[in-house]
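Let's practice the habit of predicting before peeking. Look at the sequence and jot down your guess about where helices and strands might fall. Then scroll down.
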Amino acid sequence: MQKLSPDGYTLDKDSLLRFFEHCAAVAEQKQHFVVASITIPTQHIDPLAVLESVYEEDDYHFYSECTAQGEAVAGIEAVLAETFEGPERFERVKQFSEEILEHTIAVGDFSVPFAGPHFFCGFTFSDDKESAQAPFAPASVFLPRFQVARKGGAYAAVANMVIQPGEDVAPLIFGVWAAYNKFNAFDYSGEECEPPKAPKELIVKECGVPGGYEAAVAEAVEAIRANQYQKIVLARALDVQQEEGGLFDPLEPLYTLREKFPSCYAFSFSCGSGKSFMGATPERLLRVEDSVLKTEALAGSVRRGTHAREDAKLEKRLLSSDKDQREHQYIVDYITSQLEALNIEPEVGGEPRLLKLHNVQHLLTPITAQLPEPCHALDVLQALHPTPAVGGIPVSVIKDEISRLEAFDRGLYAGTLGWFNDQGNSETIVAIRSALIDGKTVRLYAGAGIVEGSVPEKEKQETDLKFSALGDVFGVNHVKESARL
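Done guessing? Here is the structure:
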């Protein structure tokens, strides 16, 4: 990617015209399109509010925010996009981005957070498309027309435009200039706030047959005892519809999720099909910043207490649970071995610590490393995904077992979503505690890790607990009692 020096650069219509004319001249010389990328420092901006204000169901979008970390980013509308499938899907996404960056010219203040073009991507749980009706390809990636972000007290917007050889660039000025003025001083006062909607009667149906989940867990426990595998994560899915057949808002729940779960990543991803995949996940799969890699093992969970004494009792039970400690150690061992296979030397952050959320607490172990050149974040992502926290051990047999024992296609559930840029920086999350919004239907997902000693009834109770976070947001306040099998 070519970066033009920002020295003396001021954003005005004349400067934009000169920049676009330069990009058009390069496109004409190369006889290849050029991506013109402009980074704009802005005043206060809320990426979720911006996404809400410009949302179109046929547009691509990506949103991720962790309130506790003070970071949020949204990518809106695709100027370039592609989908892939098969075992090479991560490598092909990397090639797609590299080809675009080879023909990208960027200008602006590159010192602000999230400066320059970023690619937003989603990878389903499986390499291959599970069915012809699957709403998302095994790998989806796009470069957004507009990107807005905040980190700490700094805010920035990025506009990306594709300029073809011989194209008249003058019309591009108006769109970028209007976006600059809007993003630089976003006017929230003009946004109409509707009063809270009255709760509607819901029809909740569990995918599969009654008792199917407990039976699948029991079968898995027997397979583990027979040494067919060591661990498997089995999930459930609930389909929720409004009795009157109304449409679900794909963005409205995100505000509630980010406020209720500030240490989680509230997220939403769409490839313009009218379907959105969203949720609030506690699990980050990978972060790369200035060649420092951060990942984590997250497995083993118990509910929160209703008062301090009960919470402490449950905390102690989790920390001393042989079943949960074994499940957690599987994840630590897998991640470290996969990193070592890439000649990365991981540092494991000691004994498991607790991650306390609103409704559940987990065992968590941070893992860090220095990312050597020329290793790319997507190379690491390919090596780690899916971790045993959402799949199982050994990886070679688990995917087929999950497909056989579960009664639905996972799609992006237990997949990974995130972004990466030309600097090698990246952040991806594990898409759990999630839901697929498809017009009149919402499908909720929740899973539990099955190891030796797992009890089917208790594992179902754990998934009930995990359902509750998104169930509350969509009005399914008592999932266990509401589900109509």
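How did you do? The CA atoms of residues 471 and 477 lie 6 Å apart.
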